[in-house]
Amino acid sequence: MVQAKVRLFVDHPLTQGQTVPLDKDQSNYLFAVMRLQIGAFVALFNGVDGEYQAEVTIANKRGGALICHAQSKPLQLPPDLWLIFAPIKKVRTDFIVEKAAEMGAAKIVPVSTNFTNSERIRQDRLQAHALEAAEQCGGTYVPEVTDLQKLDRLLAEWDETRQIMFCDEALVGAAEVLGAVQGDKWAILIGPEGGFSESERQKLHALPYAHPVSLGPRILRADTAAVAAMTVWQQHLGDWS
Amino acid sequence: MVQAKVRLFVDHPLTQGQTVPLDKDQSNYLFAVMRLQIGAFVALFNGVDGEYQAEVTIANKRGGALICHAQSKPLQLPPDLWLIFAPIKKVRTDFIVEKAAEMGAAKIVPVSTNFTNSERIRQDRLQAHALEAAEQCGGTYVPEVTDLQKLDRLLAEWDETRQIMFCDEALVGAAEVLGAVQGDKWAILIGPEGGFSESERQKLHALPYAHPVSLGPRILRADTAAVAAMTVWQQHLGDWS
Question: What is the CATH number of the domain that holds B91?
């Protein structure tokens, strides 16, 4: 069977022989934009059942349908890694969410800090970005993007069995320390562009489950730091080795 | 002395007591956009002499001037690392150049490969992006962005003492191999979004100075791959440890 070139997330159970109806947007994309016809194959995933090769049975631009053939990938869960970051300008926030999904974050948590400028996010739009990134990068899992939370409050209610890799410009901790930490549950915390406030920094340093890690001698923008930090983590503790 | 908040690249020698004239764009930025006045401080760098704190002496929007006080940073050269990549859509190409400058590339080389869609770049615009990234990230060095070159030709004329870290989706080489390679001169080669052609792949695998490295089990977009690859390299061979 030829591998489908188009990948699509659907909010529908997937199993061999299953018929999957498409909504208007999905139908428009497949049949008007991509111009697929009856008999064409599309790779479907739903974040739960892995990936299936599905054949177009109704090519209607306002409401098509497909039927699932064989599973082409099992569900591949990412490591239990959260990415916590302070939203910045719109385009760069979109990029951070996209990159987190590509790099294998299980959950994406926007936070407001003392020095965060942007106080609002569109959770639905960011979730759609994570979904699109999963479609593009061949993932079978879509990380959840949470609503904006206050960092103080997030830390006050923290599950202490979840380790934090804490990236702060002022720090010089080598990434090698990560290998010595026990624990399967992690979160990466990226500082806001204005840096953490002194009280935030003190609080973070006092947490026994927070591990400072340096991202080199240059100042990185938040979106660069997110990718770099996830690379460091995936290399030392994740599924890259 | 208060550290200046504005950083500016100038194409002019810098030394204590030196007067630095500004062109129209720079003057407009400092005096119309940032509204600096006589006596305000700006951090200047020129890619050669390090960074100087300079005081505004003429605040004219069409042609101001500053005088250099003390040097605030010596010149910090990045490791001898090139980033070679195939240009993609405009915004993502801009991001790759910006990220390469932030992450400490010494030279940025756009190449066309067999499967590259975008055949043209604006070298001057990309060079301006690298410069702006250096201004923002506190760098004292601006990597050169070369004109678009053909990958075949670049490899045919290659200096064989420069090692290549070769990132290819189809590969599974662990980054640990890098530590065993002798050589101070390196280039990272990021595959185009359509992948390398079979003949390109064979040619690369036959080169004794090309070292395949995996960037994990997910497919990364070219801009994500560029940051991830530079992180891997900086951690193993660069100035991050």
Answer: 3.40.1280.10
